[in-house]
Amino acid sequence: MTSAALSRTPLLFRISQALGRRAGVALGIAAFLAFVLVPLLHLVVPAGNVFHLSDYFVTLIGKILCYALVAVAVDLIWGYAGILSLGHGLFFALGGYVFGMYLMRGIGLDGSYHSPLPDFMVFLDWKELPWFWHGSDSFIWAVVMVLLVPALIAFIFGFFAFRSRIKGVYFSIITQALTFAAMLLFFRNETGFGGNNGFTDFKRILGYSITAPETRVTLFALSALALMLTLVGANYLMKSKFGRVLAAIRDAESRVMFLGYNTLWYKLFVWTLSAMLCAIAGALYVPQVGIINPSEMSPANSIEIAIWVAVGGRGTLIGPVIGAGIVNLAKSWFTVSFPQYWLFFLGTLFIVITLYLPNGVVGLWNSLRARMKS
Fold first, then answer.
1. 46-76 tens-digit pLDDT
2. How far apart are CA 80 and CA 247, in angstroms?
3. Per-residue model confidence as pLDDT tens digits over 262-302
4. What are phi and psi of 206, to 5 degrees?
C-alpha cells in the first residue's frame, strides 16, 4: 500500500491491520461500547428503564478500566521483562495525588471553611500553600506532573536498582518497602497531602461539576480510551525489536549482555513507562471514585495488582485486563454479600492459579482451543 493510500485509510482499519483481524474487531466492539452504547444508556435512557445504566455501574466499570490499565502496566515489566514489582501501587497513588491536588484547588471557596486553601490545611492552621502546591490550579500543569513525578521517581529508583543488578525476590521486596515507606510519609499531616484522610469532596474538573452525568461518562470514556491506546501501543512495542530483546532479557539476561546489549536501558525504559501508565490510571481513577488517601499505597494493593496479572495470564496484554475484571467484579460482589470472606477467596484464587493455571485464564483458553483443533 502506498503512503498516499495509507494516509487515506481509516485509522481503525490501520489499527486492525496492525493488531490482526480478531483483535481489530474486538477493539472496534470495545470502542462502540465505551463511546456510543454506554453514554446512550446512561444519558439518554431514563432512570427506571430496564436498559438504563446507573451512576454506580458507570463508576464501577470506569474504576475497573483504571485497574485494568495498571494491570497491563505491570504485565509489561513482569510478563515481558521478568521483573516482578510489588510496589506499583505507589505510582498509581502518586498519579492520583497529583491530579487530586488540582481537584482540591478547583474547590475554591466552596469548601467547609470558604478559604482558598484546601480544608485540611485550614484545619491544621496552615497560612499558605506549600511550595510544591504552586501551579496545581492549572489543568495542564497537573497533567504534566502526573506524568513527570512518577516517571522521575521510577527512573531514579530503577537506575540504581538495575545498575546494581538487583533482581528476583530481592527487587520485589525493595519495591514493596518503597511503597510502604511512601505510605507512612503520606500519612503524616505535616507533609501537606491531607494525612490519613487524603483528598476528597471534589467539586469541579475544568469548570464542570464532577458529579454531573456528562462528566461521569466522559471520565469513563477517557479511561476506556487510555486502556485501548495502551493495549495498541504495548502490542506494537512488544512485537518490535525492543520487545524481542526485552523477552530475551527475561529469559537469559547474561546471554543478552554477552551479545553486546546494555540491558540496563531496556529495563529502565519499560520500568519508567510502566510507572507512567500507572500514574495515568491513578489520575483517571480519583475523579471517578471521589477520594485518594495513603491506603492506596498499601503493599497489599500492590500484591493484589500482581494477582490480577497472574489470574488473567502474564505476558499476554489482554490477560491482565481479564484478570483485573474478574477479580474486581468478584470483589464488588464479595465485599457486599460476604465481606468477611473476601481475603480468603482472594488467597484461594491465587493459590489455585499458581498451582493449576500458571498461564492464567488466557493460557487455559489457549489450551482448550488447541485441544479442540487436535
1. 988 999 999 999 999 999 999 999 999 999 9
2. 5
3. 999 999 999 999 999 999 999 999 999 999 999 999 999 99
4. 55, 35
Work out the angle between the directed axes of helices 213-239 and 11-19 (0-180°, nearest 10): 40
pTM here is 0.92
Q: Rounded to whole angstroms, what are the CA distances from 363 to 2, 100, 279?
A: 38, 38, 28
Mean residue pLDDT of the chain comes to 90
pLDDT of 121 higher than 70 = yes
Give the separation between CA 277 and CA 147, rounded to whole angstroms.
Answer: 8
Q: What is the C-alpha to C-alpha distance for residues 322 and 361, in angstroms, rounded to an integer?
A: 8
DSSP H helical ranges for the chain? 3-8, 11-19, 21-32, 38-39, 55-78, 88-105, 119-123, 139-163, 168-186, 213-239, 241-258, 263-289, 299-312, 318-337, 342-356, 360-373
Phi, psi of 292 (to 5 degrees): -145, 130
